[in-house]
Amino acid sequence: MDEDDWGGISDGDILAIDLEEAYELSATTAASSTQTARKRHHSESVEKDDAKPLIKSLKTDDNSLDDKPLPPIYSLRGGYLWVSDFSKQMWCEQQLEYSLSVPVDVTIPEPKWVTKGSELHLARELEVQDYVKVTVTSSEDIFAVKVINLLIALKSILTMSAAVHREVPIFGVVNGVFILGKIDEIRLDRESFSLDIVDFKTRKTQKAPGRAQKITQSTQIMLYKRLFDDLVRGLVPRHSLTVTLQLDLDKALGESVTENIHSSHAVLHCHDKKMPLTLSLLLDEVKEAAESLPFINQLFIDYIWQEDNQSFLLEEVKYDAIWLETQMTRCLAYWKGERQCRGVDIEDAWKCHSCDYQESCQWIVQKTKELQLAREKI
Ligand code: SF4
Predict the structure, then answer these.
(1) What single DSSP character describes residue 251?
(2) Is the Cα torsion angle 92, 97, 98, 102 positive or negative in sign?
(3) Residue from 176, 218, 197 nearest 297 by CA
(4) What Cα–Cα distance (Å) separates residue 200 from each residue in 6, 111, 197, 311?
(5) Which of 72, 278, 307, 370 has a CA-to-CA distance to 248 between 20 and 30 Å?
(6) CB under 8 Å to 348, separation ≥6 — which residues?
(7) Which pLDDT value is given to residue 112?
(8) What is the CATH number of the domain that holds 299?
(9) Whose CA is nearest to atom 7 of ligand 1?
(10) Number of structural domains found in the chain
């Protein structure tokens, strides 16, 4: 099948890292077209606020009946998490909590390395696919754009029409919590029909990162594999989409999204055009396509030097299901409100020197007091 026939949709989370959340704000971009590039759908909201009810409706939970604070997953997030939340949490949970608690009218400038990283991700994506602008009119439309981009990647792997798939949306449930993310690259080996995940990391110097950074990166890429493999197992999280994101899976998708799906024959292989298109139908297609695919074989981190945008080191991460489960259980205990937020341990106090919240960090205050008390007892 001709790749260009697939059409494409992409949404605003293309720029990675912190910009993952941008899909809720449905930013717009139009990319230049090339004849060989695949297309991705990109959502544009008719009214910007249309995209927000996903969060709004969940954050307005009334907790006035008891004094118990809402767990962070509700007070800081909309009842669901992003893969990048876990990698940041593995660096410093307290830092992540501060960053999510910053009032909306306070802007913390984006570090230069984040901007560089975002530009690189966009450039890499545009090497293999284009953008198609889609107008979204509901939360269901916004999530449908994500599902369509995933579906395009899955079907293109199945037909082996392309070996490299970038910025692939992924979602699933881990320990009862709905998680969203975006995989930098899924690489298909056409001879063995095996799949690898590659995560791009930009570096200021041509040196591998230290142990602490590698742990955050390993968490992220292992979680991508876990979510992808769960789809291959047929675990499509319909219940979470209905309950957590409050999406109506049977609601007819908007005109623009529907038109784009119909014009890209590969998204749905047989559909009566007189019948309304729904998220439920798209999820059926995801399940069917994913179940025909193999599990992810290998995981790689591709380190790219900022100066020339060239890769200087490709490192394999060995998947360790038990290690990942342990980390997820520990991280989720915080999100579910089962334990207090923690800052870094004393041996990682060097992280505080470059932290934006160093001067007002309560964790440091508490640890300093504990240290003084311990000294006084000696
Ligand atoms: S100052 Fe240290 S403990 Fe506090 S948030 Fe920053 S990195 Fe974490």
Answers:
(1) S
(2) positive
(3) 197
(4) 26, 17, 10, 9
(5) 72
(6) 92, 212
(7) 66
(8) 3.90.320
(9) 352
(10) 1
Which tokens go with 198?
């590659």
328, two tokens: 């997820």
Q: How far is the CA of 203 from the centre of ligand 1 (A)?
A: 22
**Rounded-to-integer distance, Cα 39 and Cα 251, Å:** 25
Q: Could you give phi then psi for residue 375, rounded to 5 degrees?
A: -65, -40
How many angstroms separate the alpha carbon of residue 85 from the centre of ligand 1?
A: 16
**Closest listed residue to residue 113, CA positions, set 360, 354, 276:** 354
Strands (E), 125-240: 129-136, 164-174, 177-189, 194-203
Helix-helix angle 211-232:321-335, to 10 degrees:
100
pTM beyond 0.85: the answer is no
Low-confidence ranges of the chain (pLDDT < 70): 1-67, 103-114, 116, 125, 128, 265-267, 269-272
The answer to whether 201 touches 302, Cβ cutoff 8 Å, is yes
The reply to whether 125 falls in a domain is yes
- Tell whether 289 is covered by a domain: yes
Residue in this structure with the two tokens 């997030």, named with its chain if needed: 77
Q: Whose Cα sits closest to atom 4 in ligand 1?
A: 361
State which residues form the domain around 292.
64-129+149-248+270-342
Structure tokens belonging to residue 133 = 């602008």
* Residue 84 forms part of a structural domain: yes
